[in-house]
Design goal:
The radius of gyration is 20 Å and the shape is globular. Helices cover 42% and strands 19% of the residues. The chain contains eleven helices and ten strands. Helix 5 packs parallel to helix 7 and helix 8 packs parallel to helix 9. The chain is an alpha/beta fold. The strands form two sheets. It has a five-stranded mixed β-sheet with strand order 3-2-1-4-5, with helices on both faces. The protein has two domains: 154 residues, Nucleotidyltransferase, domain 5 (2-Layer Sandwich); 174 residues, ATPase, nucleotide binding domain (Nucleotidyltransferase, domain 5, 2-Layer Sandwich). The two termini are 13 Å apart. Bound molecules: 5'-O-[(R)-(carboxyoxy)(hydroxy)phosphoryl]adenosine and zinc ion (ZN). The site of zinc ion (ZN) has 6 residues, from helix 4.
Length: 350
């Protein structure tokens, strides 16, 4: 470990948020967010009910330079004061990732600073260290639009996959349910809002893979749930009740699988009881309080980053850069390629 504070510019362009941020700190955190600028392209994609990759990459290209300038201005930092430039190199929509990574390469080359090619999932995974300085090891529930995983994190390069989704990601299930129910995009916040005034017991929706104790993996499945909502919606139903019933089913699934992963984590890391929730769906307050309750029952300490740091942002990418430099990494080669797929377990700090 290198015991010095690093100042890193972060760039995030893997989906429909164009973001730039400057973060300063050292592992294990907490770090200081000097600026954190996020432009959400929601409006551009809303008419299509989902992210259109071509529109996303064009929009990133149009505004990224401006966002970086603003992030540096707000942080009152120049290129000379940076220790590195970190950008998401995957996984994500490849056109967008290319825009961010290529920009970062050009800046790194021009400023003579190390480039850190960051795994987007690593950014989500390490956010609780940026905000709360959570020490390794911790059990991570990563719930976003593209991912749903339970991972034991032993170190910045030690990820043990306890379970993942066998079909849809949980955020995707929220987004598709919203679309079926005629709620606006992005679906997660809209379903959560509608659920607040609905009855969670109005409809008995399926909870796939529940209560399968003794298995070796804590896997998730959400596609059956989505299909059940689609069938319900053929009749005239209360959107609020359907949203609340859907969210209640999701919560039951997340709680059951997390409880199972806690057992696995305890076997790998006896005595460790840190539970971290990350990714866009972690912004959901009903899910957050159900998980807090679970942690209380199981004797775990829960950390959920604030909503703005759960959804995609560049502060988490800059922080992943800090983690990498703190671990003694010298930066990545400028010839590194963007990756549409990049599992967390394949992430190594070299
Ligand atoms: O992490 P994120 O910003 O992007 C990805 O890397 O996927 O996550 C976006 C996902 C979307 O599916 C969105 O609907 C979901 O997170 N989401 C929520 C909430 N806020 C965002 N899902 C449920 N409740 C929320 N409040
Ligand atoms: Zn994300």
């Amino acid at each position: 470990m290198v015991d010095k504070a690093f100042t890193v510019l972060g760039i995030e362009t893997s989906c429909d948020e164009t973001a730039a941020a400057v973060v300063r700190g050292r592992a294990p955190g907490p770090g200081e967010i000097l600026s954190n600028i996020v432009f959400s392209q929601t409006e551009a994609h809303a008419p299509y009910g989902g992210v259109v990759p071509e529109i996303a990459s064009r929009a990133h290209l149009e505004i990224l330079d401006d966002m970086i300038e603003r992030a540096l201005d707000e942080a009152k930092t120049g290129f000379a004061e940076l220790d590195g430039i970190a950008a998401t190199a995957g996984p994500g929509l490849i056109g967008g990732v290319m825009v961010g990574l290529t920009t970062a390469k050009a800046l790194a080359l021009g400023a003579g600073k190390p480039l850190v090619a960051v795994n987007h999932l690593m950014g989500h995974a390490m956010t609780a260290r940026l905000t709360h300085g959570v020490e390794f090891p911790f059990l991570l529930l990563l719930v976003s639009g593209g991912h749903c995983q339970l991972v034991g994190v032993g170190a910045a390069n030690d990820f043990r996959l306890y379970g993942s989704t066998i079909d849809d990601a949980v955020g995707e299930a929220f987004d598709k349910t919203a679309k079926i129910l005629g709620l606006p995009y992005p679906g997660g916040p809209a379903v959560e809002r509608a659920a607040r005034s609905g009855n969670p017991r109005a409809f008995d929706l399926p909870r796939p893979l529940l209560n399968r104790r003794g298995e070796t993996r804590a896997d998730f499945s959400f596609s059956g749930l989505k299909t059940a909502v689609r069938q319900l919606a053929q009749d005239k139903i209360s959107v609020e009740d359907a949203s609340a019933s859907f969210q209640a089913a999701v919560i039951d699934i997340l709680i059951d699988r997390s409880r199972m992963a806690m057992e696995m984590f305890q076997r790998d890391f006896p005595g460790s009881r840190n539970f971290v929730v990350a990714g866009g769906v972690a912004a959901n307050q009903a899910i957050g309080s159900a998980l807090s309750q679970l942690c209380q029952e199981e004797g775990f300490v829960i950390q959920v980053p604030p909503p703005g740091l759960c959804t995609d942002n560049a502060a988490m990418i800059a922080w992943a850069g800090v983690e990498s430099l703190s671990a003694g990494a010298a930066g990545d080669s400028l010839s590194i390629s963007p990756r549409a797929r990049w599992p967390l377990a394949g992430t190594l700090i070299t």
